[in-house]
Amino acid sequence: MAQPATGSQPDLIEFAPLAQSDLAAIYTYTAQQWGQAQADKYMKFLEEILLDLVSDPTQAALLTNPRGVTSHTAKRQGARHGHRMFFEQTEMGIYVLRILHTARNWREALPESIKRLNIKHQAARK
Predict the structure, then answer these.
(1) How much is the pLDDT for 112?
(2) Which end of the chain, C or N, has fewer beta carbons within 10 A?
(3) For residues 42-74, b (16+ Cβ closer than 10 Å) or e, as one string?
(4) 123 in Cβ contact with 77 (< 8 Å)
(5) Three-state secondary-structure class, residue 17
(6) What is the reported pLDDT for 69?
(7) What Å distances lie between residue 96 and 10, 35, 72, 77, 85, CA to CA?
(8) C-alpha–C-alpha distance, residues 31 and 34, integer Å
(9) What is the signed CA dihedral for 104, 107, 115, 56, rounded to 10 degrees?
(10) Residue 13, C-beta contacts closer than 8 angstroms, at least 6 positions apart
């Protein structure tokens, strides 16, 4: 899920450690509940959404707190819940901070550590 092979300059999706943990937990839970094939399909669905966000990040909502973070909800048609993706735009694509279930209170789940991670990532890019 890191780099699509299209175009002369690849779009890039980078994942914060918390986002990587989120994806692993989503995969594990989905595989336990509905089987590995469904977990693979759902990961592909999330990957397609993320690639769409790299191509057009304006389809997501810019949050005011934390500042500079954008949010997009990925939900399959007819599904009651889905996952909310939190990311920053970068020069080459997006930096995914978290991927949280829509039933979860994201304001509580985006702790101060995300803000620190956000600042640390920005400093590393300079």
Answers:
(1) 53
(2) C
(3) bbeebeebbbebbeebeebeeeeeeeebbbbeb
(4) no
(5) helix
(6) 83
(7) 17, 26, 11, 23, 7
(8) 5
(9) 70
(10) 1, 2, 3, 50, 51, 54, 93, 94, 96
- pTM score > 0.85 for this model? no
Give the pair of three-digit tokens for residue 44. Answer: 């592909």
Tokens representing 16 are 């914060």
Give 66-105 pLDDT, tens digit per residue. Answer: 677 888 888 878 778 889 999 988 888 999 999 998 887 7
Q: Going from the N-terminus, what domains does the chain have, and what CATH number goes with each? A: 12-125 (3.30.2310.20)
Element holding 110 (H helix, E strand): none
DSSP for 60-95, please give it. SEEPTTTTT-EEEEE--TT-S--EEEEEEE-SSEEE
- Identify the pLDDT of residue 70: 82
